[in-house]
Amino acid sequence: VQLQAYGGGLVQAGGSLRLSCAASGNIFGINVMGWHHQAPGKQRELVASITSGGTTTYADSVKGRFTISRDNAKNTVYLQMNTLKPDDTAVYYCKAVRIYPRFEYWGQGTLVTVSS
């Protein structure tokens, strides 16, 4: 499975960005797709995830500001990020999880920089 992420960039605080991640290859059995981010000097952590059935999970820090969605026909997951804050600055990684046998796939990361 290959994951190609798009959409990072530089934005002012209060602005918006939309990240996209397209999965290709042997995607049979991929259930969960989502986004993690990693700020300088910090651990990688979950931002949001969505199952193939549409169940979503969000980090508390992004609830009400970010929305994750998924187009199963296109094997693509999106992250709409609104009201961005400087603390959102990080490299954002797309992740896909195959449930059985369990395996995690990671994209290459896309940098999001929010200026104050």
Describe the model.
The chain is an all-beta fold and 116 residues long. The chain contains no helices and eleven strands. It has strands at 2-6, 9-12, 17-24, 30-38, 45-51, 56-58, 66-71, 76-81, 90-98, 103-106, 110-115. The strands form two sheets. Strands 2, 4, 5, 6, 9, 10 and 11 form a seven-stranded mixed β-sheet that branches. A four-stranded antiparallel β-sheet has the order 1-3-8-7, with no helix packed on it. Strand 7 and strand 8 form a beta hairpin. The mean pLDDT is 95.
Strand content: over 45%
Nearest-angstrom radius of gyration?
A: 14 Å
Portion in helices: under 10%
Biggest sheet statistics: 7 strands, mixed
Mean pLDDT: 95
Report how far the terminal alpha carbons are from each other. Answer: 37 Å
Low-confidence stretches: none
Morphology: globular
Reading the helices and strands in chain order gives: EEEEEEEEEEE
Question: How large is the count of helical segments?
Answer: 0
Number of DSSP strand runs = 11
Summed up:
With 116 residues, the protein is an all-beta fold. The chain has no helices and eleven strands. It is globular, with a radius of gyration of 14 Å.
Layout of helices and strands:
Blueprint: E1 2-6, E2 9-12, E3 17-24, E4 30-38, E5 45-51, E6 56-58, E7 66-71, E8 76-81, E9 90-98, E10 103-106, E11 110-115
Parallel strand pairs: 2-11
Antiparallel strand pairs: 1-3, 3-8, 4-5, 4-9, 5-6, 7-8, 9-10, 9-11
Descriptive tags:
globular, 58% strand, 11 strands, four-stranded antiparallel β-sheet, 116 residues, mainly beta, seven-stranded mixed β-sheet
